[in-house]
Amino acid sequence: MTYLVHSSDVFKETDLHKLDNDTFHCQPSIGNIGSLPTLFSQDGVFNHEANSYLFYQKAIKAAKDLSPCAQALQAYYQFLEDKGLAWDTFPPVKRLKPTYLFRSHLLKQIKNGELAHSTASVRMNQIVNYYKWLMHDGYLRIKNEKEAPFKMEFVSVQSTGMLAHISPTFTVETSDLRIKVPKDASSKNIRPLSPLAQESLSILTQYLPSASEELRLQVLISLDTGMRIQEVATLSLSALDTATPLAESEHRYEMVLSPQSTGVQTKYLKQRRVEISSELLTTLLEYRTSERRLKRGSKLDQKLEALPKIANTLKQETLERLELSERHEPLFVSEQGNPVTAKSIEARWTELRAEIKKTHPTFIHRFHDLRSTYGTYRLNDLLEAGLSSSECLGLLMGWMGHRNDSTTWKYLRYLKRKEAFKVKFGILDGIMHEALGGENE
Q1: Cα–Cα distance between 304 and 91 in angstroms, integer?
Q2: Pick from 204, 185, 182, 255: which is nearest to 367 by CA?
Q3: How far apart are the first and last CA of the chain?
Q4: Is the distance from CB of 134 to CB of 113 less than 8 angstroms?
Q5: What is the Cα–Cα distance from 73 to 67, expressed in whole angstroms?
Q6: Is residue 37 within a helix (H) or strand (E), and if so which, with residue range?
Q7: pTM for this model (two decimals)
Q8: Helices vs strands, H then E, count in the chain
Q9: 49: Cβ contacts below 8 Å, ≥ 6 apart
Q10: pLDDT per position as a tens digit, 16-49
């Protein structure tokens, strides 16, 4: 079995010292790039080629997340191991090459419902990029076209952006190994939108009081603003300070999410504004100065004061989180005085969901479904208010930080398919009011 092990901190440069007993010691020097995923064979043999590629991605390309690449390499080498194939042997017949056999394997997994189209497509693309690097860096030498791991192609793609009327198509370079992902968001082959129905929202509201104060607020933030889990985790006091009332509504505010100015780690590192209800904003401001949070913040301050002395003993990921906290104080801090992470929020949500499922087995929602709940209810509310589809999608795309308008269109298609979906966004305001302990009016 192919093993994937996450190492401790890895350094770009090291110093080699000879000891008195004629042995050598390798001492880390500079260029700490943090933890690295490391691939080993079933016999515990270090996979030199794959691990060199992972090091290249982190050290040279400064990749933020190596998980998709590492998982693809693990799946590929596991497949090669199971089939007794070599990564660097390519027969002239295309169907016998390990890369094409792996593609057939992925397609079979899709057909059996074991893998989503999107996941298979990412894995195949990662393997293609891996082989491009192997050939470029001399690990794999190809004498002629028949020995190549795949064939490169140029494909014309339909443009869907704002300037599509000027340039309706554009050409991209790809390989004949590519796996297409169905465009229809309702397809069973890709994960559809899963917003919480009114019944699920009511169930969640019943259980939120039993959750920690931090998780309760994190859930409500995602429901009320559509923020991603990483954005919720890194929500800062600086971001709260940017809240300004919306001219169109006396009950809603907008605040700035920006890695640069407010420290909130958005997807694509893109600055955007999100809306938030005045009731939730007031609650967050009260929590900000609460004794519970101030105690946690004090522990964080102590760690930041000692940071120059302990920096060399910390993992790179931990060091980066603390350095971010120095620049922008986080709203959420753990009981131990550490900045809250997306993983810790996900863990607490999983515990809450397990508790709910004891009584309500159908409650299987992910934390990310809170975001699609906001998007779906909010879009329905905007449409009910009489705004045109293009106006609604423009507003929602900005608030949710979608990179492509096609992502936002999924919400409109969802509403059109769900004709029975007549509940206004106001239901979320009611849920918010009840979850925050408001009295019935």
Answers
A1: 58
A2: 204
A3: 62
A4: no
A5: 10
A6: strand 24-40
A7: 0.66
A8: 17, 7
A9: 87, 134, 139
A10: 888 878 888 777 777 777 788 999 988 889 999 9
